[in-house]
From TrEMBL:
CDD domains, A to Z: Wnt_Wnt11
PANTHER family in the cross-refs: PROTEIN WNT-11, WNT RELATED
Protein name: Protein Wnt
Domain of life: Eukaryota
Lineage summary: Eukaryota, Metazoa, Chordata, Craniata, Vertebrata
InterPro entries: Wnt, Wnt_C, Wnt_CS
Organism of derivation: Engystomops pustulosus (Tungara frog)
Length: 352
């Protein structure tokens, strides 16, 4: 019996290791800014890449600085979006050796996969626009007709190129034979596609006015993506309403279907997860929970950052903090403002 348990433990560890390979590339967020990606041997210095991504690196060297930037953006954007939640994306700091919250198929891993897929395509699309990549330029001019007085111009974000190259890189680990269980592979591919779908739907009409004294008699318009923070908030909404799924036979093959609503298929627009998450109240490394002790909370908030919810009913400690801010500002004709710096003391709270 003990032998069987030992074998099961080893197999579970191996499976988790394989599952997590897909987003190990987020370790690129720790890449030194001084690393020049101009020779194929530089790919060996990048942490977190699987063999197929290493091949993409060697054949697309000019793209790698943009992908490194994307990894940094994922980390920054995720932490910002979840700063008011018990789970606050701190696990990403551990890349490429993640905790269980991202190794298992939780709703947290669903969000990170979706955000990662959206971010890498967003960053590449924007890099095309500003001329950072020799392999692409501005996006195509749309075929739709604009209102009178408006014309197509400017430089549209090249979303098609971003989606093509972004998915080629971020999905590469999940298409390997040793990509973990079929259920996890399907889940991660689905959530990554949701992220790209949200990115694509964020493409919005942007215009710039021309005319005498700002009359806006003529407008030049182009299609541009929303900022990553807005895309992350859209995905956060999907995270909060994510659907738990199971992997079961449907017809001639196994598919992911809603656990409690298996009379309908999984919707293309919803995030899905396989494993329930811990409550993240107490530190538990086995479950990937960092706990909320010493996290800052908001005493007057009714939301998830309230001291009651953030501290899980354990209570909180007050402390005084000194804030430096601009004050006594004066406007000088014609064109500038001068301010003094003032200090004030505010009361803040951290969870026990």
């Amino acid at each position: 019996m003990k032998i069987h348990f030992f074998v099961w433990t080893i197999l579970t560890f191996i499976l988790h290791t394989r599952i997590c390979q897909s987003i190990k590339w987020l370790a690129l967020s720790k890449t030194s800014a001084s690393l020049a990606m101009n020779q194929t041997q530089h790919c060996k210095q990048l942490d977190g890449l699987v063999s197929s991504q290493m091949q993409l690196c060697r054949s697309n060297l000019e793209l790698m600085q943009t992908i490194i930037q994307a990894a940094k953006e994922v980390k920054k954007t995720c932490i910002k979006a979840f700063s008011d939640m018990r789970w606050n994306c701190s696990s990403i700091e551990l890349a490429p050796n993640f905790n269980q919250d991202l190794e298992r198929g939780t709703r947290e891993s669903a969000f990170v996969y979706a955000l990662s897929a959206a971010t890498i395509s967003h960053t590449i699309a924007r890099a095309c626009t500003v001329g950072d990549l020799p392999g692409c330029s501005c996006g195509p001019i749309p075929g739709e007709t604009l209102d009178q007085g408006s014309r197509w111009g400017g430089c549209a974000d090249n979303v098609n190129y971003g989606l093509m190259m972004g998915s080629k890189f971020s999905d590469a680990p999940m298409k390997m034979k040793k990509a973990g269980s079929q259920a996890n592979k399907l889940m991660h591919l689905h959530n990554s596609e949701v992220g790209r779908q949200v990115l694509k739907s964020s493409l919005d009409l942007k215009c710039k006015c021309h005319g005498v004294s700002g009359s806006c008699s003529i407008k030049t318009c182009w299609k541009g993506l929303l900022e990553l923070r807005e895309i992350a908030l859209d995905l956060k909404t999907k995270y909060l309403s994510a659907t738990k799924v199971v992997h079961r036979p449907m017809g001639t093959r196994k598919q992911l279907v809603p656990k409690d609503l298996d009379i309908r298929p999984v919707r293309e627009s919803e995030l899905i997860y396989l494993q329930s998450s811990p409550d993240y109240c107490l530190k538990n490394e086995k479950l990937g929970s960092h706990g909320t002790q010493d996290r800052q909370c908001n005493k007057t908030s009714p939301g998830s950052d309230s001291c009651d919810l953030m501290c899980c009913g354990r209570g909180y400690n007050p402390y005084m903090d000194t804030v430096v801010e601009r004050c006594h500002c004066k406007y000088h004709w014609c064109c500038y403002v001068t301010c003094k710096k003032c200090e004030r003391t505010v009361e803040r709270y951290v969870c026990k």
